[in-house]
Amino acid sequence: MEYEPVIGLEIHAQLLTDAKIFCGCSTKFGGSPNSHTCQICLGMPGVLPVLNRKVVEYTIRMGLATHCRINEECNFARKNYFYPDLPKGYQISQYAYPLAEHGYVDIELETGRKRIGITRIHMEEDAGKLLHDEHNPSSYVDLNRTGVPLIEIVSEPDIRSAEEASDYLRRLHEILVYLEICDGNMEEGSFRCDANVSIRPKGQDAFGTRTELKNMNSFRNVQRALEYEIKRQQYILEGGHEVVQETRLWDDTAGVTHSMRSKEEAHDYRYFPDPDLVTVALSREWVEEILKDQPELPLEKRERFVRDYQIPAYDAGVLTTSRALADYYEEVVRLTGQPKTASNWVMGEILRFLNEEKKDIAACPITPQALADMILLIEAGTISGKIAKEVIEEMYKTGKPAKAIIAEKGLVQITDEAALARVVSEVMAANPNQLSQYRGGKEKLFGYFVGQVMKATQGKANPQLINDLLKKMLAG
Amino acid sequence: MKIKKDEVTHVAHLARLEFTEAETEKFTSQMNDILMYMEMLNRVDTAGVAPMTHAIAQKNAFRDDRVLESLPREETLANAPDARGDFFRVPKVID
Amino acid sequence: MELNQLTIHELQEKMKAGETTSTDIVQSVFRRIDAVEKDVHAYILLTREAALEQAAHADGEIRKGRFQALTGIPIALKDLLCTRGVTTTCASRILHNYVPPYDATVVEKLRAAGAVFTGKTNMDEFAMGSSTETSWFGITRNPWDLERIPGGSSGGSAAAVAADECIAAIGSDTGGSIRQPAALCGVVGMKPTYGRVSRFGLVAFASSLDQIGPFTRDVEDCAILMNVIAGYDPKESTSVPAEVPDYRQYVSRGIDGWTVGIPREYFIEGIDAEVLEAVQRSVKVVEGLGAKCTEISLPHTEYCLAVYYIVAPAEASSNLARYDGVKYGFRSQDGRDLLDMYKKSRSAGFGAEVKRRIMLGTYVLSSGYYDAYYKKASQVRALIKRDFDEAFKSCDVILTPTTPTPAFRVGEKTDDPMQMYLSDIFTISTNLAGIPGIAVPCGFTRGGLPIGVQFLAGHMGEAKLMQIAGAYEKSAHLEKRRPNL
Questions:
Q1: Can you list the positions of beta strands (E) in A204-316?
Q2: Three-state SS at C189
Q3: Are A97 and A274 in contact (CB under 8 A)?
Q4: For residues C428-452, b (16+ Cβ closer than 10 Å) or e, as one string?
Q5: Which of A33, A401, C42, C409 is deepest in the core (most CB within 10 A)?
Q6: pLDDT tens string A353-406
Q7: Beta partners for C170?
Q8: Cβ contacts (< 8 Å) between B65 and chain A: which residues?
């Protein structure tokens, strides 16, 4: 029996606002415990929430970027349950009337493009953190994180493999980071993923029993956890048993999922509209204003690069891994008019230097202008491509412009034909054996002569000229 | 009977309350009286009536994305029944 | 007359004329407290030292010729209002030692207007009650008859004003908790339009129904207080961004030519005969002032109680979930683990009525019951509001009794929750619709118990209420009595 997995993902992304969703406390990560809290996010008696407008704006952006319908009105609801990291005893979230619905994201598979539906995107507040004591039965509560704004993105159960899930996750992550509304840091918890997994016999319409997976704190772990869970469920069904509907936690060290069992009995959240918050009306004007201001998204950018710059899809992919990198590349193209060359230098040397130092494009000591200048010097014949590789390394190390480095080191390309002809003659004279072998038919030795001339000119000879001269002069 | 004793016990658990046997009996009886009284709402025709969840018509009450001063930690923890260092301490959840 | 028996406006005139000082007034009030508080028990906490300091400061301001709206006037605050640095208990064991790090917006406004605070008044626990018998700190007694209740939940504030233990007081009203005790204690009490007065810092009971309002000796004082406490607050999402008129301007305008609606559904079997008589006399007074009294119908009145006792407990069950022994308040030391700690703390920390309402509220919101109860009640609520919207198309204000009976005896209704709930039948509709209402003394029973008449106005109609209540008060020619304490 062949089984097919049915997967839906729920992503929680922390929004990069300065202040929390319902109060003015800072959202900065890593503050000392209970130092970014006020009476409002602490849920003290008598306090009331007021919605941070930026949270709505960011959520609209994400809705637009994923082709959702932005609802005309949306409301907040209370999700009631007891836990020490939830000071009010309820989480303010959205239930019946979310901000955005019915969108999609396209992922690239080997078999082509696939569309993953997005059921809804809504706003809610984050909870605090609970630290557990190893040695005695206590837990410690830090409420800094309570009230940090979150968006929850729920996908349709359209995903059919762990790999598709990983792609979808990366796609969403990329969009969020591109929009600059989330920093996408899974380790720090600003980007979290839970999954709903079930399997069914291929061809069957009805869904199988699903389990909820939590505690997957990296892209790799999401994929591993899903792969494991799919196998686990398959094993159960093949053995003639039934999958139990439950929540399971991924155990990274053991590489398995564990049941959370009865501790997590089905919650009755008793959702009802929050009477302390009023309806959010999203006027067409407001949404259109945001749309006007919306940055170009990664998928569109990649397609445009391929189309307009005639570079391969793979290159477009690398160059758009971050908005900053894409902007850098485009600036170089703008200044040089040479997209292919620019792509080679950015993907080659620039990224190599940055990766070695684990740095970001923002930290690159070579500005787009500086790189463009160097490329133009190659085009003008001032230096050869080979020499340029030396030059760019110096540029990166010292931050000096290409022109200065070339002058300092005397790297200007030799284009004087007469001078080069003299060098070629000297080389020919110094290598009589190779010369006669070449003239005798060993054409491979051409490269040897090129190498020798290059050595004699310390690489500064114009390669094209060398080629032409050697061809002429070696022939006798 | 609108509500039975075991339902009352379940509701108590949801609300994180506990009652003696006698209290549960009394609550069950009182809640039944009250819920029976609520039955009268079924006489009202509410077809097409939007639920009224707010007493005002306003929409869009917002705040700016501006950081304001938080409470000093001492004040945050001042009322805590059990504070340890910078944290609130609670008994652990038993698995 | 003692200083503690005068109104805000009378005392202000005396202070301006140099005939008295805030310190004198405050001392007079505390002398009265020392004499009668042991019998009335209107207060949970007295803040004598701070009050005298505030009075001294006020006197300094007055000497410099600087007068704010309430400079030097001693006001009592219901212990449901957060006061920075001063315990705010909500009359509950679960908050018996809670000290807020902030002031409620209304408290800030009163402070800025120069008010002096005498203390925090007693109330039903978490504002859930109609008799102030559920307070963890003991009951408050009606100054007119110490064997009877003062009403609730703001019983302490009403009794304090009636017993001259403060000049005016602030309470809160979710289903009648200002108007009912005002009527039972013979003072003026107003519930503003929902959103007119900021709820920030008012410990929440039922968020879509709660409002803060004043208890005063006369309508003019009510207008003075409303001028101070009303207004938009950006810290509350449900605050109405509308200008505050000068309510004092309306108190003496009269109501010639007005139409006053008398809803037939409020004049039913079960109203005490003397209450009915007194309210009917009020109708005559109103007619004598040039208004036309006409019978109207508010057809969904009979459902108000049922709607209220679904909506209010539902919201309350959620609002009170924060009292879990983790961050503030009472925590039981007997809890074996987290779950046990929650249950023991909440069960020991809350009184019976609060627990009953939490249970009711949790039940009506729970899985499978939401549509049948909460959603249905919210729909009927919309119809109740519609009734009022219709009525106000043809009336300026509505006149009703405030309570079905005068003050009942201590312990008389504590065994039967439904009986207790029925004492709110005339006030509850106002909160459901979000409209303003005022209770004004309209007479006494032959046994000497106060009776109050209630006026209701449309959304943001406080000025209209000042107008009719002011006119009524002047013409009703009620005997000036004081409780025999």
A1: 211-216, 247-251, 256-259, 272-273, 280-281
A2: strand
A3: no
A4: bbbbbbbbbbbbbbbbbbeeebbbb
A5: C42
A6: 999 999 989 999 999 999 999 999 988 888 888 889 989 999 999 989 988 988
A7: C77, C214
A8: 17-19, 52-55
Q: What six digits make up the tokens of A132?
A: 């557990």
Pairing of strands A191-201, A3-14: antiparallel
The whole-angstrom distance between B70's CA and the closest CA on chain C is 12
Q: Identify the pLDDT of residue C23.
A: 98
Q: How many CB pairs under 8 A join B and C?
A: 161
- Strands B83-84, A90-93: pairing is unpaired
Judged against a pLDDT cut of 90, whether residue C383 lies above it is answered with: yes
* Contact across the interface for B27 and C335, Cβ inside 8 Å: no
Tell me what pLDDT residue C92 has.
Answer: 98
Cβ separation A275–C200 shorter than 8 A: no
Residue C250 near residue C470 (C-beta atoms within 8 A): yes
Q: What residue of C is the nearest CA neighbor of B75?
A: C101
| Size of the A and B interface in Cβ pairs below 8 Å | 120
pLDDT computed for residue C237 by the predictor: 98
Q: Using 50, 70 and 90 to split pLDDT, how confident is the model at B95?
A: low
Q: What is the pLDDT of residue A91?
A: 98
Lookup: tokens for A212: 């909820």
Distance of CA B5 to the CA centre of its chain: 20
**Residue A265 has what pLDDT?**
60
Asked if residue B2 has pLDDT above 90, the reply is no
What sign does the dihedral B73-B79-B85-B89 (CA atoms) show? negative
Token couple for A81: 């349950």
CATH classification code of B5-43 = 1.10.20
**Do the Cβ atoms of C343 and B16 come closer than 8 Å?**
yes
**CB < 8 Å from C in window 3-32 of B:** 3, 7-8, 11-12, 14-19, 27, 30-31
pLDDT at C280: 97
Q: In what order do the strands lie in the sheet with C74-78?
A: C43-46, C116-121, C74-78, C168-173, C211-216, C188-191, C437-444, C450-456, C397-401, C259-263, C292-296
- Res C252: pLDDT: 96
Max Cα-Cα span within chain C: 70
Q: What is the pLDDT of residue A35?
A: 97
ipTM of predicted assembly, 2 dp: 0.96
- The full set of domain ranges for chain A reads 3-287, 296-409, 417-474
**To probe the interface with A, which of C318, C342, C354 has the most A CB atoms within 10 Å?**
C318
- Domain A417-474, second-level architecture: Orthogonal Bundle (1.10)
Provide the pLDDT for residue A261. 64
pLDDT at C336: 87
Phi, psi of A214 (to 5 degrees): -130, 170
Phi first, then psi: what are they for C259, rounded to 5°? -110, 125
Give A337's Cβ-side CA count (13 Å radius): 2
Domain locations along chain B: 5-43
Which residue in A38, A132, A268 is closest to B70 by CB distance? A38
Weakest-pLDDT range from B67-71, C336-340, C448-452: C336-340
pLDDT at res. A230: 95
Superfamily of domain C3-247: Amidase signature (AS) domain (3.90.1300.10)
Contact status, residue C237 vs residue C199, Cβ threshold 8 Å: no
Give me the percent of chain C exceeding a pLDDT of 70.
Answer: 100
pLDDT attached to residue A387: 85
In degrees, rounded to 5, the angle at the alpha carbon of residue C190 between the alpha carbons of residues C26 and C153 is: 80
Q: Among candidates A71, A173, A170, A168, which has minimal Cα distance to A113?
A: A168
**Catalytic sites of C, residue numbers:** 78, 153, 177
A362–B contact, CB cutoff 8 A: no
Q: Is A266 left (phi over 0), alpha (psi -120 to 50) or beta?
A: beta
For residue A359, the cross-strand partners are none
